C-alpha cells in the first residue's frame, strides 16, 4: 500500500494528514472551514485516495493560512506516498460537468510543479471559504506534490458549482495519474524527479 502521513506545525497552523493512494476514497476531514471540508471529501471520494486531515488554524484572522497549508501538507503526503513513481500512469485528465458548469483538470506527475488556472469567480466566499483560496490551494498542492496542474473552467455561472467541479475533476485526474499500470518509470529520461 502506498501510504504516507505528514504533520506541519507553524505559528499559524497545526495540520495532520494521512493518505492512502490505494484506498477506497474514505475521508475524515476537519479544517474548521465547512465548504473546504466538503471539497476535500469530494476530492478523496473521486480520486479513491483515502484522506485523513485535521487542521487547526488562525481562522480568527481568515482562512488563508489554513487552506494554503492544507494544500502544502496534502501535496507533501501525496509526493511521499508516490515514492519512486515506478509504474504510475503519470498523466490524468478529466472533464467534470456540474449543472451549468464544465471544468477540466489535466495534470502530469512530472516532478516539475506548475499551475495554470483559468476560473473566473464572482463571489467573495462560499460559506466561510474565500473563493480566491481555490487557486492558492491548488498552487500549494501542485508545488508540494511536484505536479504540473492545468485547471480550466470553460463556463458556468454558479461559483459553488465551479469550485466543486474543479475538486471533482482533480480527484478523477489524480485517480488516473497515480494508477500503477507498469513496472518502469513513465519517462524517456528514466526518472521523474
UniProtKB/TrEMBL annotation:
Which Gene3D superfamilies does the UniProt entry name for this protein? Imidazole glycerol phosphate dehydratase, domain 1
- SUPFAM superfamilies in UniProt: Ribosomal protein S5 domain 2-like (SSF54211)
| A GO molecular-function descriptor | imidazoleglycerol-phosphate dehydratase activity
Main site of residence?
A: cytoplasm
Which EC numbers characterise this protein's activity in its record?
Answer: 4.2.1.19
Q: Which PROSITE patterns match?
A: IGP_DEHYDRATASE_1, IGP_DEHYDRATASE_2
A GO cellular component term found in this entry reads:
cytoplasm
Catalyses which reaction(s)? D-erythro-1-(imidazol-4-yl)glycerol 3-phosphate = 3-(imidazol-4-yl)-2-oxopropyl phosphate + H2O
List the GO biological process terms: L-histidine biosynthetic process
Annotated compartments:
Cytoplasm
Pathway stated in the Swiss-Prot or TrEMBL entry: Amino-acid biosynthesis; L-histidine biosynthesis; L-histidine from 5-phospho-alpha-D-ribose 1-diphosphate: step 6/9
Q: Which UniProt keywords apply?
A: Amino-acid biosynthesis, Cytoplasm, Histidine biosynthesis, Lyase
Q: Which family does the record assign?
A: Belongs to the imidazoleglycerol-phosphate dehydratase family.
* Name of the featured protein: Imidazoleglycerol-phosphate dehydratase
**Organism, as annotated:** Catenisphaera adipataccumulans
Amino acid at each position: 500500500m502506498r501510504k504516507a502521513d505528514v504533520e506541519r506545525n507553524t505559528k499559524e497552523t497545526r495540520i495532520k494528514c494521512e493518505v492512502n493512494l490505494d484506498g477506497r476514497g474514505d475521508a475524515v476531514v476537519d479544517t474548521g472551514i465547512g465548504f473546504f471540508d466538503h471539497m476535500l471529501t469530494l476530492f478523496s471520494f473521486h480520486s479513491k485516495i483515502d484522506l485523513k486531515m485535521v487542521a487547526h488554524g488562525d481562522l480568527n484572522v481568515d482562512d488563508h493560512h489554513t487552506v494554503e497549508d492544507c494544500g502544502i501538507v496534502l501535496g507533501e503526503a501525496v509526493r511521499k506516498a508516490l515514492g519512486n513513481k515506478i509504474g504510475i500512469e503519470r498523466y490524468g485528465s478529466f472533464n467534470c460537468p456540474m449543472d451549468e458548469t464544465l471544468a477540466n483538470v489535466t495534470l502530469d506527475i512530472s516532478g516539475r510543479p506548475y499551475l495554470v488556472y483559468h476560473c473566473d469567480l464572482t463571489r467573495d466566499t462560499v460559506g466561510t471559504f474565500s473563493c480566491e483560496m481555490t487557486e492558492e490551494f491548488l498552487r500549494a498542492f501542485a508545488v508540494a506534490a511536484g505536479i504540473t496542474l492545468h485547471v480550466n473552467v470553460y463556463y458556468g455561472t454558479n461559483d459553488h458549482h465551479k469550485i466543486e467541479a474543479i475538486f471533482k475533476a482533480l480527484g478523477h485526474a489524480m485517480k488516473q495519474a497515480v494508477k500503477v499500470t507498469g513496472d518502469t518509470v513513465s519517462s524517456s529520461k528514466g526518472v521523474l524527479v
